[in-house]
């Protein structure tokens, strides 16, 4: 297992109003991984990123990046961290290439026109390099933010809602770029409202709500442990009641006896095999069926379920 590149211990942030934006968060990020932080608006995602990037002063807790305590050696560690913020925060009158070049110099790196060109070409911004940022579309402005964050070649990159408000084609291009960065060894932490993106790209997932980290796990392990299988079986003839041969399966009669609904596999990952056993039991009992539709939980299903449990607690 790779050594942690970022370690948060007991990280809390309480504002003067009494709002607890972060509540004793413990988190370790492994070198070279893509980590997705999921949570509703106001959950604490942006506050957590701000604390690591020096934009928010924590109330308590410690942050270590690259082995350095950020409270003692912030400047050295911050030079290796890139941030693509949620909001546009750059000089709109500045030409694209000047803005990106300035970001590199801001962290003490010497000019490198070749590297700047490489970044701009990768983001399809090279043809726009001389244009003022204010003249670009919303999607292109967001690409400029990514270019600025990459200009000093960070080892750890934060992406706060990087694809919000951009079209599907642009979003796909950005994710291809993220994949390329990971291949180069960049560690990536992202927040996103597009949970299917996290499901596709992330190695691990953390779910945060009301400032508390509810769960952190490898994506595949989380989906197997918390996922469930749902199967709808259309029957050839209606059933008045559930036969005894099916009593030990988690099934219910629906649609006036014309359909059986299986919901199971919770926490076991055995849903698919149990559905196969169910169909064999139906055949053995002489119950014909005309169709079956099997659905596995997505990461979004798990996310919604966890937040629902949190609200009921």
Automatic annotation (TrEMBL):
InterPro entries: AAA+_ATPase, ABC_transporter-like_ATP-bd, ABC_transporter-like_CS, ABC_transporter_ATP-binding, P-loop_NTPase
Keyword Transport: yes
Keywords: ATP-binding, Nucleotide-binding, Transport
Molecular-function GO terms, alphabetical: ATP binding; ATP hydrolysis activity
The keyword ATP-binding is annotated on this UniProt entry: yes
Residues annotated as domain ABC transporter: 6-235
One of the Pfam families matching this protein, by short name: ABC_tran
Record PANTHER family: ABC TRANSPORTER ATP-BINDING PROTEIN (PTHR42711:SF10)
Official protein name in the record: ABC transporter ATP-binding protein
Organism, scientific name: Altererythrobacter rubellus
Higher taxonomy: Bacteria, Pseudomonadati, Pseudomonadota, Alphaproteobacteria, Sphingomonadales
């Amino acid at each position: 297992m790779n050594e942690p590149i970022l370690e948060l211990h007991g990280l809390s942030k309480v504002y003067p109003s009494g709002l607890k934006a972060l509540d004793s968060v413990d988190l370790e990020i492994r070198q070279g991984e893509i980590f997705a932080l999921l949570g509703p608006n106001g959950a604490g995602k942006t506050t957590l990123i701000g604390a690591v990037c020096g934009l928010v002063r924590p109330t308590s807790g410690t942050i270590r990046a690259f082995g350095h305590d950020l409270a003692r050696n912030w400047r050295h560690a911050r030079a290796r961290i890139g941030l693509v913020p949620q909001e546009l925060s750059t000089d709109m009158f500045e030409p694209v290439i000047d803005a990106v070049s300035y970001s590199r110099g801001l962290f003490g790196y010497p000019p490198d026109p070749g590297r700047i060109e490489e970044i701009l070409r990768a983001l399809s911004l090279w043809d726009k390099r001389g244009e003022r940022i204010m003249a670009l579309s919303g999607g292109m402005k967001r690409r400029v933010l990514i270019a600025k964050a990459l200009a000093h070649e960070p080892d750890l990159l934060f992406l706060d809602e990087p694809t919000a408000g951009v079209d599907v084609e642009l979003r796909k291009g950005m994710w291809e770029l993220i994949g390329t960065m990971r291949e180069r060894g960049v560690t990536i932490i992202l927040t996103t409202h597009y949970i299917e993106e996290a499901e596709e790209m992330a190695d691990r997932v953390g779910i945060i709500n009301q400032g508390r980290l509810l769960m952190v796990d490898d994506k595949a392990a989380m989906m197997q442990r918390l996922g469930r299988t749902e199967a709808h079986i259309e029957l050839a003839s209606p059933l008045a009641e559930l036969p005894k041969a099916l009593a030990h399966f988690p099934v219910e009669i629906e649609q006036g006896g014309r359909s059986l609904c299986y919901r199971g596999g919770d926490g076991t990952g055995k849903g698919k095999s149990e559905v196969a056993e169910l169909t064999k039991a139906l055949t053995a009992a002489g119950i014909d069926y005309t169709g079956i539709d099997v659905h596995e939980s997505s990461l979004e299903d798990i996310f919604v379920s966890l937040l629902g449990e949190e609200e009921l607690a």
